[in-house]
Structures are given as structure tokens and as C-alpha cells.
Amino acid sequence: MPDLLTTANLCCGTASILLSSQDELTIACWLLFLAAVFDVFDGLAARALGGGTPLGVQLDSLADMVSFGVAPAFALWTAALPLQPGGESWIAAAALCICIASAWRLAKFNVDTRQTSGFLGLPTPSNGLFWASMVLVVLGQDFPANAITGKLHAGVAAFLGSPLLVFTMALVLGLFMLSELPLPGLKFKHKGWNGNETIFLLIAAGVVGVLLFGLLAVPLLLVLYLLSPLWGKLFPKTR
């Protein structure tokens, strides 16, 4: 069952690439969010069945490389080109940066025994969903119309319209992926509050953010997650 869920993740990523190649970017990017759902549930299924297998670990990383490395890079390339005449080289460099950082990040995770309860560096799915959400926002997908979201939407459009800014962001997030920044794992240790404070707060912030800003909440949550080593120190460590 865990391997079948991982395969579903892979199918979503592959379908996303095929749809992006046909300029069906809306469905292509939403498929990456569906891939993330399968990515969560394959881990839950593996733990419920007593742990995953070495094959499952490798399969999971390969699926993540397609769904959260290649697919969002391809969606970015397809979406940004019409917005950036003459900026093809920068967009290509940004797409390559996303793919290379994702591959290195996933390979590092597979051989790093320190990342059992948390992460060292930004997880690949978080980076992939950031770029998918950027494309969806520019396409006008699922954000409530008000003064704040209007300004944020305009900011995202201006961001994707600047080749240098897109490449710089891809490079910065790639460095975060390969860094030693300690970030909390998004797995509940138990059903209680103590020890799970960071996860509960991220979930609460995500729900509120989506209600207020729609997909614009994704980049805001990414920033909050990257800052979690700072505000996470407010909570005592459980033994």
C-alpha cells in the first residue's frame, strides 16, 4: 500500500509535466498538490504497517524528484516565458536550479541518518509547492478578492515577470534545501500538545492563511516554516 501511494504521487507528477507541455498549467499545478497528499499518506501508511522498506525509501525519493523537482520547474518555465520576453536564459537557469537542488536534497536525505524526526534543510515538496502556488496565483486561481490579496497578487505577478528575481529566489531556496538549517518534521509524535506545538501552530496558520489569502498562504507559510527554528524555541523540549 505505501508503494502504491508513492506510485500515485509519481503519476501526478508525470501527468503534471505532460499537461504543462500543453499549456494546461492550472490542472498541472493542482496535480502537484494532489501529489503532496499522496506523499503524506504513503508515509502514514508505512508507519501504520510497521515501517517502510528500503525499496519504498528509494521509490519515494524518485517520485518526489519528478513531482516536486522536475514538474514545478517545467511549470515555471512554461508560465514565466510569456511574462519575460528576452529572459529565457534566467528562467532556464532557475528551472535547472530547482531540479539540481531537489536531486541533491533527496540524495542527501536518503543517506543522512540525522533526519529521522526532523529535517536539515528545506524539504523538496515544500519548495515544489511554493513554485506551483506562484504559477497558480498568476493564473488567477483561488484567492479571495480584497485589497490585501489584490496587492499580493500584483506582487507575485511582478515577481514572475522579473527573470533575475525568479532566478535569485530559486537559488536562495536551493541553498536552503542544501543547508544544515534544522527544521521540524511534520509528523505528530503523539496526540497531545507538548512536543507537537510547532506542527499544531503551522496547521492553524495554514487554515487561517488559506481562508484569508487562498493560495497566497503557501509562500507565507514557507517563510513561517523557515523561521520555525527561532519561534520554536519558545516551547520547552520534551524528554
Description of the structure:
With 239 residues, the protein is mainly α. The chain has a single domain, classed as Four Helix Bundle (Hemerythrin (Met), subunit A), CATH 1.20.120. Helix content is 71%, strand content 3%. It is built from 10 helices and 2 strands. The chain has helices spanning 2-21, 25-48, 54-80, 88-111, 124-138, 147-160, 163-177, 197-213, 217-226, 228-231, and strands at 118-120, 182-184. It has a two-stranded antiparallel sheet. Helix 1 (2-21) packs parallel to helix 3, helix 2 (25-48) runs antiparallel to helix 5 and helix 5 crosses helix 6. The chain is globular. The relative contact order is 0.12. The mean pLDDT is 82.
Summarize the helices and strands and which ones pair or pack.
Layout lengths: L1 H20 L3 H24 L5 H27 L7 H24 L6 E3 L3 H15 L8 H14 L2 H15 L4 E3 L12 H17 L3 H10 L1 H4 L8
Antiparallel strand pairs: 1-2
Helix pairs in contact: 1-2, 1-3, 2-3, 2-5, 3-4, 3-5, 4-7, 5-6, 8-9
Summarize the structure.
The chain has 239 residues and is mainly alpha-helical.
Structural class: mainly alpha
CATH first level: which class?
Mainly Alpha
Rg is: 18 Å
Q: Which CATH architecture would you pick?
A: Up-down Bundle
Ranges where pLDDT stays below 50 over 5 or more residues in a row are none
Note the beta-strand portion: under 5%
The CATH topology assignment is Four Helix Bundle (Hemerythrin (Met), subunit A)
Count all strands and give the number: 2
Average per-residue pLDDT, rounded, comes to 82
SSE sequence, one letter per element: HHHHEHHHEHHH
Anisotropy-based shape? globular
Range of helix content: over 70%
Number of domains: 1
Largest sheet strand order:
1-2
CA(first)-CA(last) distance: 33 Å
The largest sheet, given as strand count, sense and whether it forms a barrel, is: 2 strands, antiparallel
List the total number of helices: 10
